[in-house]
UniProtKB/TrEMBL annotation:
Protein name listed in UniProt: Cation efflux protein cytoplasmic domain-containing protein
SUPFAM superfamilies, A to Z: Cation efflux protein cytoplasmic domain-like, Cation efflux protein transmembrane domain-like
Keyword set, alphabetical order: Membrane, Transmembrane, Transmembrane helix, Transport
Origin species: Prymnesium parvum (Toxic golden alga)
Gene3D superfamilies: Cation efflux protein transmembrane domain, Cation efflux protein, cytoplasmic domain
Pfam families from the UniProt entry: Cation_efflux (PF01545), ZT_dimer (PF16916)
GO cellular component terms attached to this protein's record: membrane
Sequence ranges assigned to domain Cation efflux protein transmembrane in this UniProt record: 62-258
Membrane topology of the entry: Multi-pass membrane protein
Taxonomy of the source species: Eukaryota, Haptista, Haptophyta, Prymnesiophyceae, Prymnesiales
Length: 504
């Protein structure tokens, strides 16, 4: 989503942020800190700034121009000096134009906003571009290796006499190419890292491979001048191995991104630390991350109090997301899932069964091995809750069998995914003329009746006191949505069904 703020306002907000943040409350400080990057992903932006992307575009275009000029110079000097290494180096520089084109395409295409065909954005095209550059880099390394072998074989034949001036000129061109290409390597890599563009970084290594091939050409020319022609192929084989290794690394990294390999463990630890700063987060698990070009997506499972309402849980998710993107700037989007699994002795609805209580006792199940994970998954699959409306109807029907219970004002269900059952919290309306001891006994009957229902393993019964029907002592004043069916049962304990007698 787009921020809706004008560029001028955003610029003012950005410049004033260091002065305003210390004066604001924590919630406003966080909102202000995130304001300039609200459209990180779905609005077409990225973690990297537009300026970094423009610089990456410019340095790639500069590299393309340099490749054209160097290719011409190397080719002319190689022909004049009869240097196969320098001629091959010129062809290599010309082939780098393909790499530059792939880099420009991937850089621009991966920054496009999400659309109907690509709802998660176009970030994966960055990895596609990196893979393409990696393949071309490996092809260049292989080409240099083949040329080195051919040069070694040719070195056994009588050399053709070449003027010394031509050899000196060829050496000068090779040295110039080394300087230019090494400078392009450092500039392109730095800007690519700032723009979080793996394709631009891969293209930087292509510049490095061109610089190394120029080193081979320089060694070949120097060896020819010194009467040691075998220096050229030996250096070529070494450089070929280095370029093949680097191309393999780039291709492997691109494949990891395309196959959603887990992100760095240290970064995940930073994400976990940020998420745990939210007080309502009791624990977290299943923390995962994947990259989509310049974007880093995180999803996690957060353990919360099972009695928490859906609206409050949504606020917890929002706070977790804000904490993570504020403290880990590489993250573009956070998806939060909730775990409300209850443990033995854990608090329910803010109360602890064992009297000790405390939110810290509610922790998600730690899965130490695949077998336990599979068993838990099977239990959760086998124990899917019936419709909440069905269970509520059964609860009202069970309460209607107790004559002293006039109605039911609230029913809340909490589902335990581990034990495979529901905890029912119910507020009942009773005859206000009952004594406290009688009301306690009726509450026990109600609890027992509810716990006999399918999918229910625990009931928590409360007494509703502040309705008009309670104050005026009239069952007819109960609102229709709170009233229970009136069975034809006498209003005394002897008429109660034996099924509802609590044990003991």
């Amino acid at each position: 989503m787009k921020s809706g703020l004008s560029p001028d306002y955003m610029a003012v907000l950005q410049s004033a942020r260091p002065l305003l943040c210390p004066l604001l409350r924590p919630r406003l400080r966080m909102a202000l800190a995130l304001a300039p990057s609200q459209s990180r992903m779905h609005g077409g932006g990225s973690w990297s700034s537009d300026a970094s992307v423009r610089r990456a575009d410019q340095v790639t275009q500069a590299g393309a121009v340099a490749n054209v000029l160097l290719a011409g110079m190397k080719g002319a000097a190689g022909v004049a000096a009869n240097s196969p290494a320098l001629i091959a180096d010129g062809v290599h520089s010309l082939s780098d134009l393909i790499s530059d084109g792939v880099s420009l395409w991937a850089l621009r295409f991966s920054r496009r906003p999400a659309d109907e065909r690509h709802p998660y954005g176009h970030g994966k095209f960055e990895a596609v571009g990196s893979a393409g550059v990696g393949v071309m880099l490996m092809a260049a390394g292989g080409s240099i290796g083949v040329h080195a072998v051919q040069t070694a074989l040719e070195a056994l034949d009588p050399a053709v006499a070449v003027p010394l001036s031509a050899q000196i000129g060829a050496a000068g061109v090779a040295a110039l190419a080394i300087v230019v290409k090494e400078a392009l390597f450092h500039a392109t890599r730095q800007i690519g890292e700032e723009a979080r563009s793996s394709t631009v970084v891969a293209n930087a290594w292509h510049h490095r491979s061109d610089a190394l091939s120029s080193v081979v050409a320089l060694v070949g020319v120097g060896g020819s001048m010194a009467g040691m022609p075998l220096l050229d192929p030996l250096a070529g084989l070494l450089v070929s191995a280095m370029i093949l290794n680097e191309g393999g690394k780039i291709l492997r990294g691109a494949m990891h991104e395309l196959t959603d390999k887990q992100v760095d463990a240290a970064l995940l630890q930073s994400v976990a630390t940020a998420a745990r700063l939210v007080p309502e987060v009791l624990d977290l698990s299943n923390l995962r991350g994947r990259t989509l070009g310049p974007h880093l997506l995180i999803d996690m499972q957060v353990s919360i109090d099972p009695a928490m309402s859906a609206s409050v849980a949504q606020q917890v998710a929002t706070k977790v997301r804000l904490q993570v993107v504020d403290r880990v700037p590489q993250v573009s989007e956070v998806l939060v899932h909730f775990d409300t699994s209850l443990r033995s002795g854990a608090p329910k609805g803010g109360k602890a069964r064992d009297g000790e209580g405390g939110a810290a006792q509610l922790r998600p199940l730690t899965l130490h091995d695949a077998a336990e994970h599979a068993a838990l998954a099977q239990r959760q699959t086998d124990a899917v809750m019936r419709s909440q409306l069905e269970i509520e109807a059964d609860v009202r029907q069970a309460l209607s069998t107790i004559p002293e219970v006039w109605g039911c004002s609230h029913i809340r269900l909490l589902w335990d995914t581990v034990r495979g059952g529901a905890i029912v919290q119910v507020d009942v309306i009773m005859n206000p003329d009952l004594r406290v001891l009688q009301a306690m006994r009726i509450g026990g009957y109600a609890k027992y009746a509810i716990e006999q229902l399918e999918d229910v393993f625990e009931a928590d019964v409360h007494l509703e006191l502040l309705l008009p029907c309670n104050m005026l002592g009239s069952r007819d004043l109960i609102p229709a949505d709170m009233a229970l069916p009136r069975p034809d049962v006498a209003d005394d304990a002897s008429a109660r069904s034996p099924r509802l007698q609590p044990p003991g």
